[in-house]
Amino acid sequence: MKTRTMKFLGAVALSMGLSAPAIAAEAVNLDELLRQVETGRVKDAQEAQERLAEFRADRSSQQQKLANMRAEKTRQENLSAQLETTFEANDVEIFELEAALQERLGDLKELFGVLQQASGDAIGQFSNSITQVQYPDRTAWLTEFAAKMGQTTRMASLDEIERLWFEIQREMTETGKVVEFPTTVVTSTGEEVEKTVTRIGAFNLVADGKYLEYLPETGRVLELQRQPQARYTKRLGDFEGASSGYTPVAIDPTRGQLLGLLVQSPSLSERIAQGKEVGWVIIVLGIIGVAIAVWRWLVLTGIGSKVRAQIKNPQNPGNNPLGRVLKVYHDHKGDDVEALELRLGEAILRETPKFQSMLPMLKIISVVAPLLGLLGTVTGMIVTFQAITLYGAGDPKLMAGGISTALMTTVLGLVVAIPTVFLHTLVSGQARKLTQILQEESAGLLAEQAEAQRGA
Amino acid sequence: MDTLYYYLPFLESVRDFMELGGPVLNWIGLLTLAMWVLIIERLIYFKVGHKKMVSAAQQLWEARPDHQSWNAHQVRYRLISVVSRNMDKYIAMIQTCVALCPLLGLLGTVTGMVNVFEVMAVSGSGNPRSMASGVSMSTIPTMAGMVAALSGIAMSTYLQRKAARERELLSDHLVIKHS
């Protein structure tokens, strides 16, 4: 091919060489041109002859090449056939060998299965166990090992089998121990602090008198945001301080689940917010009720102490309900008994309703608060059922949120009603006492006074 | 506290029971305690203080030369009123306590149910064990409230009737003589 290209390029160069003298010869004359054409023609014929000879020579070499290629092809075909037979033979052999392998693996395959299952179970257990904090790299190895056993093409080495055994044994041993070790703890404020943590078996992590939480997802140790009752945490201090012997300590037998639930329970303000509008109305009513009760109680106690002082000193009527009744008597001493009785009755009737003022309001609040709670419950249930209509009953979490809202208003209603009823009894008792003193005792007091004066 | 539990182990079971019932149970316990303190105070009063009051009132009445004038009637009313006022003390409060016990029980039920639904909201309905604490928190206060109310209801009725009877008796004793 290369030689051909060279020749073609040569031909191009030749024609260029022809045309260049032709242009140069234009200025000479026609004879000159003719001569030039003559020589050129001779030259062309020569070249054509040469090319022809060349092509002829080429053809024989091409035929030679073709023959070579054909020979090559048959050779390759033979080789292919030969390889095909070898492949078939190998295929058969592989099949036989595989059968032999399966046969020989036999019990070993079961062993692989057991190893895979055992390591899989161990991963599940270990990753949720708090001992993971101390030995974080074992699950990665176990995962790799389980994958390897799953392929059943590679044998487990004795070392690996022994390591699996060792890891499971170590977990067992560690579960029965109380150990101290340093690790980073995320505190409730979000800071990462290096602390000496005490691990109680596989149950709890404890540091500085507080329970900790282990998150398997992130592998972090968190301080529980809400700690259990003080009598549980109080013992942790003694427990951490102890170096030998026995110290009582509270553990979470569910390995942190119960303590985890503790954190999720909402705080008081969150609960109050769940009551929504009705809840706020109830709270405002409750505040009004308590304010009324306290105010009336203070007023009635003041009047009561004045009245008691007045009973001891009936001669000088002061500015209090009993005093005003006595004053009526003092002003109309000369009247006859029946007129006096009428005047007294009138004065008492003027005084007694004041004691009862605002008390019906308190009573109303104590009755209305649970009713409002019921209202909140019903509206909450309506919201819940609307949620069910929209999303179906499949998600208990969705429904539970609405229901706890509904219940919260009931709680608030009762929380308001109970002290209001109590305070109402307290205040109305005082009011009744004062009324009784005025209605049943003021006349007696006057009679005693009159008799004393007459006697004197 | 621990040594107290050591020497009186039943207190520990009381504490566990109170914890099982949740915070409302403490209030019910406090209310019941207050109620029974008042009831016992009243019983003692009827046995001791009331007798003194009645005899003092009778002496005052008997000492009077005059038993039939308008003045005498008013003085008699006053004597009866003072005695019965002292008798009626706390009885309304005891009755309120009796009425409040089941109400507090209901409060406990509702807070317990709130707890159950909160657990449900967090962990779904698949974990009955975690809901059990809320259920016990909702049932135990109801029971305790009922029991407390029942224990007080007989006593409060008895005290009320006793007060009414004593008042009648006193007005019978303070005889209006017609000469």
Quick description:
In chain A, 75% of the residues lie in helices and 7% in strands. Chain A has 456 residues and is an alpha+beta fold. In chain A, β3 and β4 form a beta hairpin.
Give the helix level of chain B as a range of percent: over 70%
Total beta-strand segments of chain B: 0
Order of helices and strands of chain B: HHHHHHH
- The total of helices of chain B stands at 7
Query: Helical region count of chain A?
Result: 13
* % residues in beta strands of chain B: under 5%
Q: Give the uncertain stretches of chain B in residue-range form.
A: none
Main-sheet strand order of chain A equals: 1-2-3-4-5
Helix content, binned percent of chain A: over 70%
Instruction: Count the beta strands of chain A.
Output: 5
**Uncertain parts of chain A:** none
Which sequence of SSEs, written as H and E, runs from N to C of chain A?
A: HHHHHEEEEEHHHHHHHH
| Strand residue content of chain A | 5-15%
Shape of chain B: elongated
Content-based structural category of chain A: alpha+beta
Calculate Rg of chain B over CA atoms: 25 Å
Distance N to C terminus of chain A: 163 Å
Q: Please give the largest β-sheet of chain B.
A: none
State the end-to-end CA separation of chain B.
71 Å
SSE blueprint:
The complex is a heterodimer of chains A (456) and B (179).
Chain A: H1 2-25, H2 30-105, H3 107-128, H4 138-151, H5 158-175, E1 178-186, E2 192-200, E3 204-207, E4 210-215, E5 220-223, H6 230-241, H7 257-264, H8 268-274, H9 276-312, H10 321-331, H11 337-355, H12 359-391, H13 396-455
Parallel strand pairs in A: 1-5
Antiparallel strand pairs in A: 1-2, 2-3, 3-4, 4-5
Chain B: H1 2-7, H2 9-21, H3 23-47, H4 49-63, H5 70-88, H6 91-123, H7 128-173
Helix pairs in contact in B: 3-6, 3-7, 4-5, 5-7, 6-7
